[in-house]
Design goal:
- The complex is a heterodimer of chains A (about 600) and B (about 220).
- In chain A, α4 runs antiparallel to α5 (about 165-200), α6 runs antiparallel to α9 and α15 packs antiparallel against α16.
- Chain A is built from 16 helices and six strands.
- Among the domains of chain A are: about 45-130, no CATH class; about 155-315; about 345-465, no CATH class.
- The longest helix of chain A is centred in the middle third of the chain and has 35 residues, at about 210-245.
- In chain A, the strands form three sheets. Chain A has a two-stranded antiparallel ribbon. A two-stranded antiparallel sheet of chain A has the order 3-4.
- Chain A has helices spanning about 35-40, 45-70, 80-105, 125-155, 165-200, 210-245, 255-265, 280-310, 320-340, 345-350, 355-385, 390-415, 435-465, 500-505, 530-550, 555-575, and strands at about 385, 465, 495, 515, 525, 580-585.
- Chain B has about 220 residues and is mostly helical.
- Chain B has a domain at about 80-215: Four Helix Bundle (Hemerythrin (Met), subunit A) (Up-down Bundle), CATH 1.20.120.80.
- Chain B is built from seven helices and two strands, in the order ααββααααα.
- Chain B has helices at about 5-10, 20-45, 60-65, 70-95, 95-125, 135-165, 175-200; strands at about 50-55, 60.
- In chain B, β1 and β2 (about 60) form a beta hairpin.
- The chains are: A mainly alpha (about 600), B mainly alpha (about 220).
- Chains A and B meet through α4, α5 and α6 of A and α2 and α6 of B.
- Bound molecules: protoporphyrin IX containing FE and copper (II) ion.
- The site of protoporphyrin IX containing FE has 27 residues of chain A, from α6, α8, α9, α10 and α11.
């Protein structure tokens, strides 16, 4: 421990008298309820907050999607105006990626599609807010990524070598590396755009020689790694779920890890496949075509490894397993259409048509969303100590998978039959009517499935049946902990001797050891603080003030200055608060972590 | 905090301190950041080697603008500041707080001189007719060098904070040396980036009669 606390270990923080920080103010350390949630530094609580917000935004993005599909259900429909339609699909993409998928897979990130070179075509101040919004999320993601990488490579338990890490952790690591290397490109692009819009610079201004195509390049240099940023965590989740429910260890662990890293690496070398139709010239077009085809190889390798994992296993079709199997299948279909438009001549037919919509929904919904839902359901009993209702779980998963295929399968056909994307309506007589109607029905079915899954989880969180600590016969360390996981995580730092450590501990000969920590009775807990909240509020105000300044709102400059001042004040005061912290008593004073309730099997 | 604090600090899996690791990660990210800005500038230089048109409508070359003597001087100053920074870090490791303060003060002053040169340069260029609005060159040049200047300014502020913090007596031991070392990493990085900018933005413009981009100049302008 880097410093001493004045207290003997306690069983619960509320037993301690309130304590002042170096600033002389009381720390919100002993708080419970709202104050506790607003000032928490417990990553598990922060995760729950992220998850709850992500679900909310998923629902909002879903309503936007259903409005789009309702409009497209019939030819010449006027359910929404063309203007409204534009706003709907832009907001749908942004909401889903930024606020739905990203917080889910781990931290807020930023939008990929729907913004394909589009920001340049936007007018009005909406764009300025959009720019600042992405910048804020970008900075937040960068900070989170530094933290993740540092945690993963620097704070591993004893014996947890890199090649013993759970694959989910590995994929998180690769994702975080992608984020820190890909985000600067979009940050610079947005800064340049901001200078163009607010200060009359000419980065993308054609009348002064600026090149709008530069925006597209910068956007996709970030944008393609971003699609892997989205999908790698889902791949990691599936690599945890499959072994658990087949009772086998992951087939070809080193190859899965290696292909994940290769995907991350190649992800930086294929961005121009989004720009084949801008006329890159024959050599770059050929090169980017080849590289795009090449990136399908490590992706295919992973699919074969997952199949190898299932092969010969004793499969238990639990809801998370159903979703994970759905992931493999649907993601593979998305990969197939991806390889199809890696061929530039084919892509020039497909670009901006519904075929591309089908492709990226197969990878994003069929892939990322199914993977995330699987993980959510899988770890839910660990987070809340309660087991979601299984029949509802099956029903929701089935509706999601079926509805999804009904909604997006026909879009392949519609795209090849010429239906353009981002168009608010179409005339009858093109042969598009039937499949558009089917797609709309499918979308509603998907929506109902999502509501059932979320509803089931929300209900379970408060009322669900209590379950043991290891309901799935889990393989990794977290299943050895009580559910919900106590604030201090591990009472004793574990010592690991193998991959799938907990499974081996239960069924094999290699037991999990415990590190003796010099006889200290308890775990040191960090102090809570109001300052991060203060700093982020300042950040938000500064973010809102900047586009307002560009709009010429009077005194908006002061809002920015005040916001930045509050931001720095928050960070500064946080640093001045001093270390603080307290000791929490832990139950098992010695020996290996109690293999809690392994009697389940 | 005393040196015993170091012994209490939990060892990391890789042996690299968390703070230092995070700084390295940030610098990796910042590399991509500057890389993108520098590429933007160079791409546009290749496209528009002829420079810019000033307020009177005269075609101006970038070499008309640059005062390479001044920029070489400020580059030299920044290099020397890195040297002082290295001395400050080593002093901190040896626990020589007085020597640390002297050296860090030197870094701060050199950093301020560099910033002063940049402010002078910007106003000078502005009066010669290069603005952010009147050409792509203006946009890329000011945004690139301005971003670098902002990095230097942040570094100077950070060092000023460390300097004053050292008087509270809390900057000491292993952790104190680490704090200084991390600031030093940042400072050296910003310095290296400047060397690259100085080469790619300034020096190459002097290769050949019309700079390295000159071969792309339309015949009339030549
Ligand atoms: C891994 C998950 C993947 C995601 C999340 C993803 C996402 C996307 C998105 C959002 C677009 C739309 C671009 C636009 O706005 O026009 C797109 C297009 C594209 N994707 Fe994927 N993709 C993935 C995998 C793949 C794979 C495996 C390949 C090829 C092997 C691929 C190749 C392409 C190509 C070539 C395009 C350009 C299509 C066009 O614009 O005409 N993608 N992808
Ligand atoms: Cu791509």
């Amino acid at each position: 421990m880097s410093h001493d606390t004045h207290h003997a270990p306690v069983a619960c923080k509320t037993e301690l008298a309130p304590e002042r920080s170096d600033l002389g103010l009381y720390r919100p350390d002993r708080a419970t309820g709202w104050t506790d949630w607003l000032t928490t530094v417990d990553h598990k609580k922060i995760g729950i907050l992220y998850g709850a917000f992500a679900m909310l935004y998923f629902l909002i993005g879903g309503v936007e999607a259903l409005a789009i599909r309702t409009q497209l259900a019939r030819p010449d429909n006027d359910f929404v105006t063309a203007r409204m339609y534009n706003q709907l699909f832009t907001m749908h993409g942004t909401t889903m990626i930024f606020l739905g998928v990203m917080p889910f897979s781990y931290a807020p990130l930023s939008g990929t599609f729907g913004a394909n070179g589009q920001a340049l075509r936007f007018t009005g101040v909406g764009t300025d807010f959009w720019i600042i919004g992405i910048q804020i999320l970008g900075i937040a993601s960068l900070a989170a990524s530094f933290n993740f990488i540092c945690t993963i490579i620097n704070m591993r338990a004893k014996g947890m070598t890199m090649m013993r890490l759970p694959v989910f952790t590995w994929m998180t690591l690769v994702t975080a590396v992608l984020i820190i290397l890909a985000f600067p490109a979009i940050t610079v692009a947005l800064i340049e755009l901001m200078f163009d819009r607010s200060f009359g610079a000419n980065f993308f201004n054609p009348s002064a020689g600026g090149q709008p195509v530069l925006w597209q390049h910068l956007f996709w240099i970030f944008g393609h790694p971003e699609v892997y940023i989205l999908v790698l965590p889902a791949m990691g989740i599936v690599s945890e779920v499959l072994p658990t429910f087949t009772g086998k260890s992951l087939f070809g662990y080193p190859i899965i890890v290696f292909s994940g890293a290769v995907i991350g690496f190649l992800g930086f070398a294929v961005w121009s496949h989004h720009m084949f139709t801008t006329g890159l010239g024959p050599v770059p077009t050929a090169a980017f075509s080849l590289l795009t085809m090449a990136i399908a190889v490590p992706t295919g390798v992973k699919i074969f490894n997952w199949l190898g994992t299932i092969w010969g296993g004793r499969i238990r079709f639990t809801p998370p397993m159903v979703l994970a199997l759905g992931f493999i299948w649907m993601f593979m279909c998305g990969g197939f259409s991806g390889v199809m438009h890696s061929s530039a001549p084919a892509d020039s037919q497909q670009q901006d048509s519904y075929f591309v919509i089908a492709h990226f929904h197969y990878v994003l919904v069929g892939g990322v969303l199914l993977g995330l839902l699987s993980g959510l359901y899988f770890w839910f009993p660990k987070i809340f100590g309660r087991m979601p209702n299984a029949p509802l779980g099956y029903l929701g998963s089935a509706l999601v998978i079926l509805g999804f295929n009904l909604a997006f399968g026909p879009m392949h056909y519609l795209g090849l039959a010429g239906q353009p994307r981002r168009t608010h309506t179409y005339h009858a007589g093109n042969g598009w009517e039937t499949w558009n109607l089917v797609a709309t029905y499918g979308a509603y079915m998907l929506g109902i499935g999502i509501v059932i899954i979320f509803g089931n989880l929300a209900w379970t969180a408060f009322r669900g049946k209590k379950c043991g600590n290891d309901p799935w016969d889990g393989r990794t360390l977290e299943w050895s902990l009580p559910s919900p996981v106590p604030e201090y995580n591990f009472a004793q730092a574990p010592v690991i001797a193998t991959r799938d450590a907990y499974f081996e501990h239960k069924h094999g000969s290699k037991k999990i050891g415990a590190e003796s920590d010099g006889g200290e009775a308890g775990v040191h807990m960090p102090s809570q603080s109001w300052m991060p909240l203060l700093a982020s509020t300042g950040f938000l105000f500064a973010g809102f003030g900047m586009p307002m300044m560009a709009m010429g709102v009077p005194h908006a400059g002061w809002v920015v200055i005040a916001g930045l001042a509050v931001l720095f004040l928050g960070i500064w005061l946080w640093a001045l608060e001093g270390p603080g912290g307290y000791m929490l008593k832990t139950p098992a004073p010695s020996g290996a972590p109690a293999p809690a309730e392994t009697a389940a099997h | 905090m005393s040196d015993t604090a170091a012994a209490h600090e939990a060892p990391t899996s890789t042996g690299i301190d968390h703070k230092k690791l995070i700084m390295w990660l940030f610098l990796a990210s910042d590399c991509m950041f500057f890389g993108t800005l520098i590429s933007t500038h160079l791409l546009y230089r290749k496209l528009f080697p002829a420079g810019f048109t000033d307020a009177e409508g005269h075609q101006r070359f970038i070499q008309d603008l640059f005062s390479i003597e001044l920029t070489s001087f400020s580059t030299f100053i920044l290099l020397m500041s890195s040297f002082l920074m290295a001395l400050a870090v080593s002093a901190m490791h040896k626990g020589q707080i007085k020597s640390f303060r002297r050296n860090v003060l030197g870094v701060i002053i050199f950093g301020l001189i560099f910033l002063g040169c940049q402010v002078f340069e910007f106003t000078h260029f502005y009066h010669k007719g290069l603005t952010i609005q009147n050409s792509v060159l203006g946009s890329t040049f000011y945004v690139l060098t301005g971003t670098h200047g902002t990095h230097v300014a942040i570094g100077v502020l950070w060092l000023i904070l460390l300097y004053f913090y050292s008087f509270t007596g809390k900057l000491g031991g292993h952790m104190g040396a680490l704090d200084v070392e991390v600031a030093g990493l940042y400072w050296h990085f910003v310095d290296i980036v400047w060397i690259i900018i100085f080469t790619a933005v300034y020096l190459v413009e002097y290769l050949g009669p019309y700079g390295i981009w000159g071969s792309g100049l339309p015949a009339v302008v030549k």
